[in-house]
Amino acid sequence: MNNDVIARLAAANPVAGPAAQRRRRSRYVLILAAVAVAVPAAVAVADQIGFSNGGTPVPLSAVPLGQALQDLKVGSTMQYLGTLNGVAFYATRNADGHFCIAIDHVNEQFDKGVGCDLRADGFPSADVRALTFPPARQLQGVAADGVATVVALDASGAVIDSTPVTNNLFASTKDLGAAAVSIETLDANGNVLTTQRLPGR
């Protein structure tokens, strides 16, 4: 992602003032821990792993679970990244610089979620090229440039789902339950870029 896009997205997502302490929300709210796989008031990446989907700024009031996002120190806007297979994606950086996303299953009343990658070297980076959300149930999330496919693996390493990446987004409709243990990101030639263990697996 070039500096112009980063500057434009950062301007669209001003840093929020002091925010309320994070607290647990409903089961649809997830704060991604340091081991999670992982847009952005833009995704600035030290190792040049890019994220080209700059999105369109929307007010926080238009994003599902806005109150939870305020608790995560997200500013007044997020970037709408697009909708894929009935899932709308939003992202930004919060006041602490963490990458945060929100998803909305647009045809379902309650299946929505928000979360932030709390790692210092989180998404997108050389070791973290995809952020799944929620991490255990379906392959749905965002991927760095160069990722063509995201694959879910079970405990034995067998492929249990695979989905293409479109404009940095992926959204499989297959319900994996708790079978997924890790994910792989693949390039257009089928080469494995990363293998990322899911939180709690």
User: What would you call the shape?
Assistant: globular
- Total number of strands: 12
Taking the sheet with the most strands, its summary is: 5 strands, antiparallel
Distance between the termini: 32 Å
Q: Strands of the biggest beta sheet: in what spatial order?
A: 1-2-3-4-5
Which structural class best describes the helix and strand composition? mainly beta
Q: Rg from C-alpha positions?
A: 15 Å
* Helix coverage percent: under 10%
Tell me the domain tally.
1
Low-confidence stretches are 1-47
Task: Name the beta content range.
Answer: 25-35%
Please trace the helix and strand order, writing H or E for each element. Answer: HEHEEEEEEEEEEE
Q: What is the arithmetic mean of pLDDT?
A: 78
Number of helices: 2
SSE layout:
Layout: H1 3-12, E1 56-59, H2 66-71, E2 77-84, E3 87-93, E4 99-105, E5 112-117, E6 130-132, E7 140-143, E8 149-153, E9 159-164, E10 169-171, E11 182-186, E12 192-197
Antiparallel strand pairs: 1-2, 2-3, 3-4, 4-5, 6-7, 7-10, 8-9, 8-11, 11-12
